[in-house]
Amino acid sequence: xxxxxxxxxxxxxxxxxxxxxxxxxxxxxxxxxxxxxxxxxxxxxxxxxxxxxxxxxxxxxxxxxxxxxxxxxxxxxxxxxxxxxxxxxxxxxxxxxxxxxxxxxxxxxxxxxxxxxxxxxxxxxxxxxxxxxxxxxxxxxxxxxxxxxxxxxxxxxxxxxxxxxxxxxxxxxxxxxxxxxxxxxxxxxxxxxxxxxxxxxxxxxxxxxxxxxxxxxxxxxxxxxxxxxxxxxxxxxxxxxxxxxxxxxxxxxxxxxxxxxxxxxxxxxxxxxxxxxxxxxxxxxxxxxxxxxxxxxxxxxxxxx
Length: 305
What we know:
Elements: E1 3-4, H1 5-12, E2 15-18, E3 25-26, E4 31-33, H2 35-38, E5 50-53, H3 55-63, H4 66-78, E6 83-86, H5 94-103, E7 106-109, H6 114-128, E8 131-135, E9 138-142, E10 145-151, H7 157-166, E11 170-173, E12 177-182, E13 186-190, E14 198-201, E15 205-208, H8 209-213, E16 221-223, E17 226-232, E18 247-251, E19 254-263, H9 269-285, H10 291-304
Parallel strand pairs: 4-5, 5-6, 6-7, 10-17, 17-19
Antiparallel strand pairs: 1-3, 2-7, 8-12, 9-10, 9-11, 12-13, 13-16, 14-15, 18-19
Helix pairs in contact: 4-5, 7-9
């Protein structure tokens, strides 16, 4: 995964002081403030990161005599850095622009403070560079819990999601969910631009959730916390009737609680999803010590006597 520097210019409305190589890309989330490098220390220099020159770095550069300043920026720009961003509306030295033109490096500017731009750029790169997959499922915010509803085609995922929306819960994606791995243990789900706000209900067709229920029924993205799999009822299958602990499944090597819900006529699937979300949230609030877990512990103690 990579983000073109030209895309950063558009995304953050950056001023272009020097246009570098057309194919220059960013493929690291972390950002580097290059004060140490400008002072001559290049051990452990992460040249593949976006380089930031803030108030301190800019003041240091302007304090240097002309020959030393030219040498400092020349050595920095000799490395294949993707770009330099001058923050806080600081002025750019002529030496920096000359060396950038010589080496073909991007020099950009923003009026945002260094800390503000650092946070905004990091969040953007985390999402843009995140490892991702796409799956056929529905994603909803149910009582604040990100619920991924999976199951074979025609099992009733969209119908269940529609009933949940009617009950006041929020739709993130119908049928097609894009899952991104943000950080070490966090999965965020969203929808594609093409299907945003839309649902397909067999027998009715495509419906616009925004038009029918308003913007309050929609979220752009949501952390995925539990997975509920709808599957055909099987009289010979074993289904959990106690709920002492969750099965687990994994996406992008991150494990999530997994609940199998058998489907047959007469079952209120939306209500089951709501209770599953509430139960999960209660377990979190109780530190994983649910009423059922305490009951099982009591039974085990009695059996040992």
